[in-house]
């Protein structure tokens, strides 16, 4: 092989890697490159990694199109000196033979395997096929040049070949169907994730233990340790706590490898992160040796690089324990799947010390619908306003000392992130109450947020009680609040119903707090859709249409 011409081949990253998918070329034919230049992005079954040039020179030929899957060792392109002619490059490609690559056999010993290398394509269909599909086409006697691909970028996939062997076409079916669909082949990463999780659930005995914990002290610690440079999350502190616990209980800090149990000295915690490419679990190494601030910094970095596929291989292989947190999606409880060869995983849901649902009209139907939810029910026989509704919970919360989040039942699209921001504003402001507001073009029907000259809350005025000037205000009260529990139930009995509706309004509690010299914080959201109320069938239809856009 001439040293003036160098092949650019599908790399083998790890002994178990047998193929890879070319995601993107970072260079083009004619580019002058240096050794170690990042020339392509390759997706394996575990990660998207950068392919570096093995030498300096000129990219004379790029053979493999983006999106194609090739066997390890397959020729992808050619790098050569500038003075090498096109004829010499073509001769090199024609004569090129793959090197013998070593892959592990089923017995654990090494075995040599020669891998087929695709050269130039002779037909459009053949250039959009991976080796396994080509073999299937040969077996079934299918001419790939006549097959229309339905995979990504027109790639011919297994289903296309099988359909062609029956004299059918998936592409034509897609076009003529009353319910058209777009078909795409699973990436190597998605196939591996699906395979591993299926095997885990089928072969590893799973049993689940559920506990509810008071996290008030954890919230206080989060606020205490956070600063302008590093803002800690609850998840950061949970990871920190888990790491310390694993050292105290090393029998949970393990891997099961065949008939061997490995107990580790340090906690390498895998973090379940959802990406567009699938579920990725980057590893926070030696988490037990790190401070909460160090954990927060590293977790943020790992999460950001996971989203763009820039993790290194050693950052996703191994781990002794996993943490999966769906609390940010409003999930209260779920059954996580163990990440082999680890022995355990911690599933974290949304935090709430007690959930109380105030029910009235058709309460039996509501109770039936929410039967499996972790909530207690309080019956409001007469619907006399929001203040009267919350007052029904007084006996349930008589011993509670903390913050209460008050939600409206007619706001189905409220997001966890918005509620989390509201709670954080309340925690950091030191006020007795915090309300959620929004600026809308038309505030008809909503209570108005009236501010004083300093920009703080002056009062809340219901629409039917507002004067002409107040009706012009477009900052609305979303009807969602956080209260100090003891303050709330001390003031609620003082609320009267001297208003146009004859109802007991919860916002009147805010006025009482202000009259006593206290302050009320305001958290303003820019997402108008999520705080829109549903009180009619038409409003439900309108909001459903908005939901479909999310």
Strand content: 15-25%
Determine the fraction of residues in helical runs and give it as a percent range: 25-40%
Overall mean pLDDT: 82
> What is the CATH level 1 assignment of the largest domain?
Alpha Beta
CATH topology of the largest domain: Spore Coat Polysaccharide Biosynthesis Protein SpsA, Chain A
Q: Between the first and last Cα atoms, what is the distance in angstroms?
A: 56 Å
Computed structural class: alpha+beta
Total beta-strand segments: 26
Low-confidence stretches: 103-127
Question: What global shape is seen?
Answer: elongated
- How would you write the strand order of the largest sheet? 1-8-6-3
Largest sheet: 4 strands, antiparallel
The rounded Rg comes to: 31 Å
The CATH architecture of the largest domain would be Alpha-Beta Complex
Topology of this protein?
Elements: E1 5-9, E2 19-25, E3 32-33, E4 38-43, E5 48-52, E6 57-62, E7 69-71, E8 75-80, H1 86-95, E9 101-104, E10 110-113, H2 131-140, H3 158-165, H4 170-176, H5 188-203, H6 216-225, H7 234-248, E11 254-257, E12 260-263, E13 269-271, E14 273-275, E15 278-280, E16 283-284, H8 292-307, E17 321-325, E18 345-348, E19 356-359, H9 363-369, E20 376-379, H10 386-391, E21 403-406, H11 416-429, E22 433-439, E23 448-451, E24 457-461, H12 468-471, E25 475-484, H13 485-491, H14 508-515, E26 520-524, H15 537-549
Parallel strand pairs: 13-17, 17-18, 19-20, 22-26
Antiparallel strand pairs: 1-8, 2-4, 2-7, 3-6, 4-5, 6-8, 9-10, 11-12, 13-16, 14-15, 21-25, 22-25, 23-24
Helix pairs in contact: 2-3, 7-8
């Amino acid at each position: 092989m001439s040293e003036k011409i160098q092949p650019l081949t599908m790399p083998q990253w790890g002994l178990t890697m047998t193929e890879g998918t070319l995601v993107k070329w970072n260079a083009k034919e004619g580019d002058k490159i240096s050794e170690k230049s990042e020339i392509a992005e390759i997706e394996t079954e575990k990660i998207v990694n950068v392919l570096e040039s093995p030498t300096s020179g000129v990219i004379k030929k790029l053979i493999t199109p983006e999106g194609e899957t090739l066997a390890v060792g397959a020729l992808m392109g050619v790098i050569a000196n500038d003075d090498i002619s096109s004829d010499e490059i073509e001769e090199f490609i024609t004569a090129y033979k793959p090197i013998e690559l070593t892959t592990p056999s089923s017995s654990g010993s090494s075995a040599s395997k020669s891998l087929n290398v695709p050269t130039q394509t002779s037909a459009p269909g053949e250039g959009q096929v991976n080796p396994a599909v080509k073999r299937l086409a040969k077996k079934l006697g299918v001419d790939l040049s006549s097959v229309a691909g339905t995979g990504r970028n027109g790639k011919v996939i297994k289903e296309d070949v099988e359909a062609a062997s029956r004299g059918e076409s998936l592409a034509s079916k897609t076009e003529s169907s009353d319910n058209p669909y777009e078909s795409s082949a699973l990436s190597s990463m998605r196939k591996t994730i699906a395979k591993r999780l299926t095997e885990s659930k089928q072969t590893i005995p799973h049993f689940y233990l559920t506990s509810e914990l008071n996290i008030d002290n954890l919230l206080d610690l989060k606020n205490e340790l956070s600063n302008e440079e590093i803002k800690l999350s609850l998840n950061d502190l949970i990871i920190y706590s888990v790491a310390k616990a694993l050292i105290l209980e090393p029998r949970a800090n393990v891997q099961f490898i065949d008939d061997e149990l490995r107990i580790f000295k340090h906690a390498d915690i895998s973090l379940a992160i959802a990406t567009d490419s699938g579920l990725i679990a980057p590893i926070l190494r030696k988490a037990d040796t790190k401070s909460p601030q160090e954990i927060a910094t590293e977790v943020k970095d790992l999460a950001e690089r996971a989203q763009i596929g820039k993790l290194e291989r050693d950052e996703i292989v191994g781990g002794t324990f996993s943490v999966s947190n769906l609390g940010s999606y409003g999930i209260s409880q779920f059954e996580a799947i163990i990440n082999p060869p680890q022995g355990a995983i911690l599933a974290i849901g949304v935090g709430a010390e007690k959930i109380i649902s105030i029910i009235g009209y058709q309460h039996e139907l509501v109770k039936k619908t929410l039967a499996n939810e972790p909530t207690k029910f309080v019956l409001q026989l007469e619907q006399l306003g929001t203040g009267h509704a919350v007052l029904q919970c007084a006996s349930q919360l008589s011993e509670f000392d903390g913050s209460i989040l008050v939600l409206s039942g007619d706001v189905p699209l409220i997001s966890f992130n918005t509620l989390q921001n509201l709670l954080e504003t309340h925690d950091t402001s030191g006020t007795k109450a915090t309300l959620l507001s929004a600026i809308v073009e038309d505030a008809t029907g909503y209570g108005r947020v009236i501010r004083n000259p300093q920009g703080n809350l002056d009062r809340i005025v219901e629409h039917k009680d507002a004067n002409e000037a107040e009706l012009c205000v477009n900052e609305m009260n979303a009807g969602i609040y956080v209260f100090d529990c003891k303050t709330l139930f001390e003031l609620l009995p003082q609320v009267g119903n001297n208003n146009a509706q004859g109802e007991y309004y919860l916002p009147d509690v805010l006025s009482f707090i202000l009259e006593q010299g206290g302050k009320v914080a305001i958290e303003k959201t820019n997402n108008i859709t999520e705080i829109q109320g549903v009180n009619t069938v038409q409003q439900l239809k309108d909001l459903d249409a908005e939901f479909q856009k999310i």
